[in-house]
């Protein structure tokens, strides 16, 4: 609903997509990425690779936007603004001086009623001249995608056939999803868009110069197009980084992101830079602040939600102690899938591709229909698996962290952490950001959802305790992994039965 779209749109769209095996990419080389140290999933037994003044902007509207958005309390939203530009929170989309075509897209296609609390504060900072840079962090389902998509559509001149807005995402799946939202929201504007994702079958020399007005893609392809003079930056007015914490992290696309930012601002010094994510650790936040300050003399604003608000209390989180690996499979088979098929779709997150293959094989042998997605699959196969899941043709999806971030599917009510996420190159430190992103796949936009963390041994128990302490949230224990009644009670408490 609010941030997920499967409808086609009338705006002109040119999808430049091909087949290539990497889950994500780097502009440093045209060859495949190495199997190790890859974000989103890891091969074999590799670990996950991730690693002024305060103006009060009062929000007077006490109600939720609608049943599909989950709003934090206004007191937990911190807006840090720079300079003397006055900002007034938007109670209605009409307060934002949007075009009639954009308002029609918001109300007719997106079916919004009014801005969420995050949108009410963030959109004026994006859309008010002199268009200052923004570093924004808010939890999943609060309306972040709408903020930057609406920002891009608002800054584009439909009469100018040149790239004017650029959105950079860590995976092709997220890029495609963001384009779907843009098409739907911009249906009546006539604004055109294209995807910049890997194209195995088309040499870069044969790609025509980009004339579409909005470009959404992955950093490696965008860098290649820019270097090959296929993607001009002279008319660029707005640059967006989705999942910016990963895009600026050492284990992510830090060099690519910095290169793109500096390249665009050098050519288009007035280009507005927006950094959006559900999570920002302190190191990434500090780097984001430094890089935004270094690339431009323009002032920048910030928006953050307190960490304790990020634990997604609308979700019921559970931990299940299992004596061994076989017991974890039995829990999934006999409890979660048997009961879960009555309440919606399920995503099961694993650590490695081997774990994904093993679990898939085990469940299929027991007679369950499941699909599995991981980075080693061909991209057309990944697209098909995601499409079938979004259309409800499949109910259970096993995934590495390829789909941990930004994947919107309203019918997902259950998330299972078969393996807890670990920071790369550590043996005992959970990846808190990835955990938050994973569980955020359930109960999207304020719907009911439940998360089951399957724990096996002292190490998992220690990791779970660290996660609980980090988010200041006690995860409820399911008393017995063998008890149908205990799992039924858990689903009832989550509002799913």
From TrEMBL:
| GO BP term, example | response to cold
Q: Which residues form the Helicase C-terminal domain?
A: 331-486
Which PROSITE patterns does the record match to this protein? HELICASE_ATP_BIND_1, HELICASE_CTER, Q_MOTIF
Which residue stretches belong to region Disordered?
1-56
The record ties this protein, via InterPro entries, to: DEAD/DEAH_box_helicase_dom (IPR011545), Helicase_ATP-bd (IPR014001), Helicase_C-like (IPR001650), P-loop_NTPase (IPR027417), RNA_helicase_DEAD_Q_motif (IPR014014)
What are the Helicase ATP-binding domain coordinates in residue numbering?
125-298
Q: EC number(s) for this protein?
A: 3.6.4.13
Domain DEAD-box RNA helicase Q span(s) in chain numbering: 91-120
Renumbered to this chain, the Basic and acidic residues biased-composition regions fall at 32-41
Domain of life of the organism in this record? Eukaryota
Q: Name one Pfam family in it.
A: Helicase_C
**Molecular function, one GO term:** RNA helicase activity
Q: Which GO terms describe its cellular component?
A: cytoplasm; nuclear envelope
**Low complexity composition bias: which ranges?**
1-24
Which SUPFAM superfamilies does this chain map to? P-loop containing nucleoside triphosphate hydrolases
Q: Where is this motif: Q motif?
A: 91-120
What keywords are assigned to this protein?
Answer: ATP-binding, Helicase, Hydrolase, Nucleotide-binding, RNA-binding
The protein's matches in PANTHER family, at most eight in alphabetical order, are given as: ATP-DEPENDENT RNA HELICASE DBP3 (PTHR47958)
Name of the protein in question: RNA helicase
Give the originating organism: Daucus carota subsp. sativus (Carrot)
């Amino acid at each position: 609903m609010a941030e997920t779209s499967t409808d086609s749109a009338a705006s002109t769209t040119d999808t430049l997509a091909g087949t290539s095996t990497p889950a994500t990419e780097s502009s440093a080389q045209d060859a495949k990425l190495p199997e190790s140290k890859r974000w989103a999933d890891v091969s074999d037994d590799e670990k996950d690779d991730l690693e002024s003044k305060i103006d009060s902007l009062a929000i007077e509207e006490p109600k939720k936007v609608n049943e599909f958005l989950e709003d934090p309390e206004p007191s937990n939203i911190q807006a840090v603004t720079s300079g003397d530009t006055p900002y007034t929170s938007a109670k209605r989309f009409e307060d934002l001086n949007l075009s009639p075509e954009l308002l029609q897209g918001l109300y007719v296609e997106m079916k919004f009623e009014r801005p969420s609390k995050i949108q009410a504060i963030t959109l004026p900072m994006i859309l008010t001249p002199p268009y200052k840079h923004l570093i924004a962090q808010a939890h999943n389902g609060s309306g972040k995608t709408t903020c930057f998509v609406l920002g891009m559509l608002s800054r584009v001149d439909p009469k100018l056939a040149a790239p004017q807005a650029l959105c950079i995402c860590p995976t092709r799946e997220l890029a495609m999803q963001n384009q779907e939202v843009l098409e739907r929201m911009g249906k009546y504007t006539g604004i055109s868009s294209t995807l910049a994702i890997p194209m195995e079958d088309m040499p870069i020399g044969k790609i025509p110069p980009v004339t579409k007005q909005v470009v959404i893609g992955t950093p490696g392809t965008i860098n290649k197009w820019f270097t090959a003079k296929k993607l001009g930056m002279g008319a660029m007015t707005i640059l967006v980084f989705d999942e910016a914490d990963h895009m600026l992290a050492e284990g992510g696309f830090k060099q690519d992101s910095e290169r793109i930012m500096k390249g665009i601002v050098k050519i288009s010094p007035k280009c507005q830079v927006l950094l959006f994510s559900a999570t920002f650790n302190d190191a990434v936040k500090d780097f984001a602040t430094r890089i935004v300050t270094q690339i431009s003399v323009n002032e920048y604003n910030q928006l953050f939600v307190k960490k304790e608000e990020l634990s997604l209390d609308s979700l019921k989180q559970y931990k299940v102690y299992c004596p061994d690996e076989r017991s974890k499979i039995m829990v999934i088979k006999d409890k979660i899938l048997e009961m879960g098929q009555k309440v919606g779709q399920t995503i099961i997150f694993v650590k490695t591709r081997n774990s994904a293959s093993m679990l898939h094989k085990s469940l299929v042998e027991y007679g369950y229909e499941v699909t599995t997605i991981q980075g080693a699959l061909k991209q057309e196969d990944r697209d098909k698996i995601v499409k079938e899941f979004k259309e409800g043709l499949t109910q259970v999806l096993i995934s590495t962290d390829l789909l941990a971030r930004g994947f919107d599917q309203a019918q997902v009510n259950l998330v299972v952490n078969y393996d807890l996420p670990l920071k790369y190159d550590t043996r005992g430190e959970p990846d808190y950001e990835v955990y938050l992103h994973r569980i955020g796949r359930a109960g999207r936009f304020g719907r009911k959802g439940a998360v089951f963390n399957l724990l096996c041994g002292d190490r998992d128990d220690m990791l779970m305790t660290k996660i609980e302490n980090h988010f200041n949230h006690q995860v409820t224990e399911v008393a017995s992994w063998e008890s149908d009644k205990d799992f039924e009670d858990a689903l009832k408490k989550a509002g799913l039965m």
